[in-house]
Write a structure and sequence with these properties.
InterPro entries: LigD_pol_dom, NHEJ_LigD. Keywords: Ligase. This is ATP-dependent DNA ligase. This protein is α+β, with helices and mostly antiparallel strands. Helices cover 26% and strands 19% of the residues. A hairpin with a 4-residue loop joins strand 5 and strand 6.
Amino acid sequence: MTITIDKADKIFFPEAGFTKGDLANYYRRIAPIMQRYVAERPVTLHRFPDGIAGTPQFIQKTVADHYPDWIAHVRVATEDDTIIQPVIDSADTLVYFADQGAIVFHVPLARAGALDKPDRLIFDLDPPDDGTDFAPVVAAARAVRKALADVGLVSYVMTTGSSGLHVAVPLDASAGFDRVRGFAQDMAEAIAADHPDDFTTAHAKDKRRGRLYLDVARNAVNQTGVAPYSVRAKPGAPIATPLAWDELGDTDLGPRRWHIGNIFRRLGQRDCPWAAIDNHRQRIDKAIAQSV
């Protein structure tokens, strides 16, 4: 299918000069890899019809009336109602949404058909205070990885393309969100207790006192995280990029290290480090038993 990009030369990222056409081309090329991580998940769009410096800018969850019939969708129960959300099942869908001004794609930690049973657990790690030093984020990711490994869980890491890192744990979707989030909170509190000068679970910013917040709030029904390989609405068009753990030692590493101008050079040199993530789906009950 050929999707015509309306006003393809419109500048979407002024600092880098990337256009709407560049964005659409990126999503066309990345689709074979990105679809692994968004398949069967209702997607939330962050739309910027006039680019990151323009207005309006808005979040869209529901399928719009003007969407073509071939856009896949799923019913999602919310606290108050049931909504119809789109699902990305093809490169054409990604390109179509890019033409609609969608820059960022967010997905839940569970798949359609079992949206109350997560197959991912996420620790969201952002720099403390002014965010100029990325070293605390790297230290936190390593501490989380070790704590998870100590209870038998394999984890993966990703730059968010914004300010921090995500540590993700693939799960077998056998437990509900309450159990998964409770486990994540317990792990965060244990890590903070082992490193009281570096990390905290205090939600209130005035109680953190320069320590990095171990955030597990995304582990809840209908909460979302940025999709791997999604572009972020930041200068330079940075990308949420899966990493290998040894890349945390790279002195050039930062949350916006990769963008639409260099990501394919990276992927030409190495396979996606998350390619086998779904082969490591794990049972949370075993980890809970080992942590007691």
